[in-house]
């Protein structure tokens, strides 16, 4: 009889330990793996979604050579030299919003979130505020904010992407 009472008490003690009212330990948020190449691919794809007519100014041949050089270097994964080529191009045409956006995308590839947002903002301010470049600007800003942990601000930037697309005129 004493053994049964002891077993029941041990069982009760064991069950009470399992049903402790202490709060469960907090689980740490697992940081999402960031693939910067996928982020930049998304930004560039966002710029291609529209159907509007985009007018591009004639480019200085020297700037065009530097753009091609930067494109080749970026494709080879040489981000610093690609950025240096874009810096040289920006020295020739400092207000070029497309070059600023490209630098912002290189900053995304380097995980330099604040720099990417700053450059995309500069590009937006100097750019047409419509069309593909505008969508790329806001997509870059959204990604940069998201990866810095500013989810609400990122959501605001994502909503701005839609304002960059202008519906074509109705033709009858």
UniProtKB/TrEMBL annotation:
Keywords for this protein: Signal
Highest taxon, organism lineage: Bacteria
SUPFAM superfamilies in the cross-refs: TPR-like (SSF48452)
Signal peptide: 1-24
InterPro entries in UniProt: TPR-like_helical_dom_sf
Entry annotated with the keyword 4Fe-4S: no
UniProt entry tagged with the keyword Signal: yes
Annotated protein name in UniProt: Tetratricopeptide repeat protein
Organism field: Arenimonas malthae CC-JY-1
Organism lineage string: Bacteria, Pseudomonadati, Pseudomonadota, Gammaproteobacteria, Lysobacterales
């Amino acid at each position: 009889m004493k053994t049964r009472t002891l077993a029941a008490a041990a069982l009760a003690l064991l069950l009470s330990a399992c049903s402790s009212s202490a709060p469960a330990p907090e689980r740490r948020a697992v940081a999402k793996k960031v693939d910067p190449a996928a982020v930049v691919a998304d930004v560039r794809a966002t710029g291609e979604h529209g159907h509007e007519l985009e007018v591009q100014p004639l480019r200085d041949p020297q700037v065009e050579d530097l753009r091609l050089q930067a494109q080749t270097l970026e494709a080879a994964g040489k981000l610093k030299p690609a950025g240096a080529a874009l810096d040289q191009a920006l020295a020739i045409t400092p207000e070029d919003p497309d070059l600023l956006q490209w630098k912002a995308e290189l900053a995304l590839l380097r995980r330099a979130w604040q720099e990417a947002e700053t450059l995309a903002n500069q590009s937006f301010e100097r750019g047409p505020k419509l069309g593909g470049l505008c969508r790329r600007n806001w997509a870059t800003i959204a990604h940069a904010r998201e990866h810095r942990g500013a989810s609400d601000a990122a959501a605001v930037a994502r909503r701005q992407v839609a304002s960059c697309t202008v519906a074509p005129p109705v033709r009858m």
